[in-house]
């Protein structure tokens, strides 16, 4: 599984480790080079010292060497060696070479005042290096000089590299161990730092685990705000609040559906029990069938409205938009309500421009207007007119339906008026009102991207405002 922490630790550790290894490798190579340069410099210093001991005394070469000052060339030690040549003939050897009479140190043909360092196996079998230099013997300053005559000499000194190799190995081991320790140390520190950096995210996850939307209202609280986490926390809180509301609405809806169906089912049971107990009573048998049919029709209306509400909320309705002339369309919808509200023509005042048109789905708009008109006619005072006003602008079409109530709705009632199965007290005693009409309107408006809202107006009037985008 992909891990943000593991990826961050690996990537950061890899980058820092590469930088550290590069630095350590560069330092190691530099130190190795410096140590080798020091070894070579020591050879050069010894060679130069030995050169100063060679003197040209009017054509006679003298070599004034004192073993007590350079004991490494003594026979007793035999660790380092030197050999001098004049005109390709051996002029002088170190006492240490006396142990190896048949051994000659390397002698290369190189220009005067030049030197060359080569790897060389010493006479005693050890690995070493030899420095070969070609030089002119210095003349005695107290004697007359013959500038046209020079005595050239070749000097080779050889020294073991065991100590040098040991130092280089120690340096390499130290740098390798330091590099390994540094890499693991960096990974440990990066892991700790990333873990601390991800603590707010882990804390958020732990708070999410403790959430229970079925209980009381809960939100994810922040002990200390983190710039990257706060947007996630805010969106989660919105999501949690919405789901808690949906859960509570679902519980209420389930309870209301059970309540709505419980009454007609109880009536069916009561009628059936009475008919079974008194099968020969003509008063019961005469109305039994019609009563059963009326109750069944009520139950069918509730179920059909619930199914329509479900379809509207699940976007299963196929929308077929067409141009609709509002004046004719509203009039046809009013005619459908004549059987339910015979005085609809006297109570309803229409203010619609004959040329007003909208582009909408005919079934959806018909369902919305039918429910809004039915709701206004049922709840509105019969003594006051119901006004339906249509106003068009370049951006939208607004349909406003106003009716007068006995008592203005409270803010809480206005907020809940579009909830499923919500009923005012005046409609709870009416078997034909189920509190689903405005909920269906709200769901269909959402599906069609319409806007529906309820507002209180002066003189106890309620306005239902439908806005259709052009």
User: Strand pairing plus helix content: what structural class?
Assistant: alpha+beta
Low-pLDDT segments: 426-434
Strand order of the largest sheet: 4-3-8-6-5
The domain count comes to 3
Q: Helical stretch count?
A: 10
Q: What would the average pLDDT be, to the nearest integer?
A: 82
- Biggest β-sheet: count, sense, barrel? 5 strands, antiparallel
Distance between the termini: 49 Å
Estimate the global geometry from the Cα principal axes.
Answer: rod-shaped
Tell me the total number of β-strands: 15
- Computed over alpha carbons, the radius of gyration is 54 Å
Instruction: State the share of residues found in helices, binned by percent.
Output: 40-55%
Query: Approximately what portion of the residues adopt beta-strand conformation?
Result: 15-25%
Order of helices and strands: HEEEEEEEEHHHHEHHEEHEEHHEE
């Amino acid at each position: 599984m992909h891990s943000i922490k593991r990826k961050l630790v690996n990537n950061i550790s890899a980058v820092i480790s590469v930088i550290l290894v590069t630095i350590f490798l560069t330092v190691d190579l530099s130190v190795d080079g410096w140590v080798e340069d020091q070894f070579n410099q020591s050879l050069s210093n010894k060679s130069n010292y030995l050169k100063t001991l060679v003197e040209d005394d009017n054509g006679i070469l003298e070599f004034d060497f004192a073993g007590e000052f350079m004991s490494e060339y003594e026979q007793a030690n035999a660790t380092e060696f030197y050999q001098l040549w004049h005109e390709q003939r051996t002029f002088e050897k170190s006492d240490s070479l006396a142990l190896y009479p048949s051994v000659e140190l390397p002698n290369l043909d190189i220009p005067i005042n030049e030197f060359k360092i080569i790897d060389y196996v010493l006479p005693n079998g050890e690995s070493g290096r030899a420095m070969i230099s070609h030089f002119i013997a210095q003349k005695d300053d107290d004697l007359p000089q013959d500038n046209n005559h020079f005595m050239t000499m070749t000097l080779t000194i050889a020294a073991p590299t065991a100590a040098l190799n040991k130092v280089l190995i120690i340096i390499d081991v130290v740098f390798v161990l330091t590099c390994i320790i540094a890499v693991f140390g960096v990974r440990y520190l990066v892991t700790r730092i990333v873990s601390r950096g991800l603590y707010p995210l882990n804390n958020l996850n732990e708070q999410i685990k403790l959430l229970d939307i079925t209980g009381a209202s809960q939100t994810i609280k922040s002990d200390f705000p983190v710039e990257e986490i706060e947007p996630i926390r805010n969106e989660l809180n919105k999501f949690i609040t919405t789901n808690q509301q949906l859960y509570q609405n679902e519980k209420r809806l389930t309870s209301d559906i059970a309540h709505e169906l419980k009454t007609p089912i109880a009536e069916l049971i009561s009628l059936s029990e009475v008919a079974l107990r008194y099968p020969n009573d003509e008063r019961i048998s005469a109305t039994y069938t019609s009563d059963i049919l009326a109750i069944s029709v009520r139950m069918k209306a509730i179920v059909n409205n619930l199914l329509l509400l479900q379809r509207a909320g699940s976007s299963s309705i196929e929308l077929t938009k067409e141009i609709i002339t509002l004046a004719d369309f509203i009039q046809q919808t009013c005619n459908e309500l004549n059987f339910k509200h015979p005085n609809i023509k006297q109570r309803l005042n229409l203010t619609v421009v004959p040329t007003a048109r909208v582009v909408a789905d005919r079934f959806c708009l018909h369902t919305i207007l039918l429910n809004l008109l039915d709701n206004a006619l049922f709840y509105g005072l019969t003594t006051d007119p119901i006004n339906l006003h249509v106003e068009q602008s370049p951006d939208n079409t607004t349909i406003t339906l106003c009716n007068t109530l006995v008592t203005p709705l409270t803010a809480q009632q206005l907020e809940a008026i579009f909830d499923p199965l919500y009923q005012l007290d005046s409609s709870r005693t009416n078997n034909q009102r189920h509190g689903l009409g405005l909920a269906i309107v709200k769901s269909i408006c959402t599906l069609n991207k319409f806007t529906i809202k309820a507002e209180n107006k002066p003189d106890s009037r309620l306005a239902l405002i439908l806005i259709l985008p052009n």
